[in-house]
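Feature request disguised as a bug: please show the residue count (614) next to Phosphogluconate dehydratase in the output. Example input:
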Amino acid sequence: MSLNSVLESVTARIIDRSKISRRRYLALMERNREKGVSRPRLACGNLAHAIAASEGDKPSLMEARNNNIGIISTYNDMLSAHQPYGRYPEQIKLFAREVGATAQVAGCAPAMCDGVTQGQEGMELSLFSRDVIAMSTAVGLSHGMFESVALLGICDKIVPGLLMGALRFGHLPTMLIPAGPMTSGLPNKEKVRIRQLYVQGKVGKDALMEAENASYHSAGTCTFYGTANTNQMMVEIMGLMMPDSAFINPHTKLRQAVTRAGIHRLSEISMNGNDARPLAECVDERAIVNAAVGLLATGGSTNHTIHLPAIARAAGIIMNWEDLSDLSSVVPLMTRVYPSGSEDVNGFNRVGGMPTVIAELLRGGLLHQDIMTVSRNGFTDYAQRATLEDGELTYVPAEPSSDRGILRDVTEPFLADGGIKLMHGNIGRCIYKSSAIAKEHLTVEAPARVFHDQNDVGAAFKRGELERDVVIVVRFQGPEANGMPELHKLMPTLGVLQDRGFRVALLTDGRLSGASGKVPSAIHVCPEAQVGGPIAKIQDGDIVRVCAVTGAIDVLVSDEEWAARKPADIPPPGVGTGRELFALMRSVHSSAEEGASAMLAQMDLVLDTVGDEF
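Example output, currently without the count:
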């Protein structure tokens, strides 16, 4: 089928907007390839340091024509998703030797868990950990020892950070090596029920702890369709991992077979391989649009309305929320995966998973088929299912969905649009995810109750002060204020109020995860309160309208009164738990719509200074 006209026009708009920055980026990557640090250019002393502990691989590493894979790992054994990576480097080295290549761990980046830090002070480090991961990736690759790169990472800020760092070494072919989701535990509906009972004081902490342990119970990603699993979808639909590798469970023969095939393929596409595929050429404007389409078609995490612009910017590509909103108008919602449905990613994968989604989107003209991928035969490979036949990895064409309650085809979707809306009004601009919201809650008009700390919302709830129609405003939660922590801890409380029949909405310059669920939420408000954005002028009792139908976020006061109001006083900065170490990042960040990155904001200033002279 021919390409959808809106998809085509949005792509053209991004290409035109990015002409200068993309040209500079590609020129810099060519400079890296021609003149940058690489193994053939290292002095003998440099090379001796790099191979001193490599034992049997030393002869290959001293031969410049051989392929050496640089591994960037985000392993730790506190994150269930990253625990399987502990043994991956040794496996990757074995797989590389099978095809005459070598592999070395180039560096390790930190990997924090938003599930652990939700509602805690440590969450204020979360978003900026993405920049730390990107810079750590750059440090590892700066040694110039590698002809290709294997990225080991899965979770929330980690995959975007790995890509942002690797893209500054975009002359190197790169592949993400996933580890997969844990097997399903306690049904999600039951987990939510216990959480809400706990908020209401109807069950104790022991019951809550038992339910949480039954939900998060083994190695692998959490099984709800939040940011971590949206990462895997996004990288697969961009063609940067092996086909159908996102949602295979850890420690299975199929997972090992796909990993092995990935390392063999990474050797083939390396700088010294027979089919070099640099990351800079794989991640172009079309691949970024494909990632956006995947986000919309699967009802993915709203965090990617921040991450995707940041990843794009690292490749010299400029996209914004208008692009996402326009794409959302034509990309149908094809999946219902928890929190927008009852089944988790294992159920989604069982009934067809990513190969079926990609096959359907291609059939509907909603993906760029002509992108460069890491797979041998191009993007059509991603519409195939991975399977084992006599112990060998085999790919077969995707089948139609086996359960239309979880996954539907492109012509009969759950919703005609992708559910990511750009909202605007006298409060500013924001993002709204409507795909999990019931129609009767798409418009909320109610008095505001203003907070500067999410913990104060819970306290007000316990005092009975929120038993009414209400728009909860939680501000001074943006990147410059406190690092833009996720506010997912609010969801059980607001969910209880909604279930009691009240009309409830959340308005914030902070973030929510992909697990935000059923409560109407206008998030990532720009400009943020910390810089004097209009959200800082809202007062308790103001009537606020949050309407996903019209795309409006407005305080219903006269223009004269609104213009005359002064912003609220800025709260003091948070200190402790290492937050003071990130003060510099908070002070030089870009906006949420531009990716909320201190690193990229400063990078652009440097590149503007040097222009095309490298």
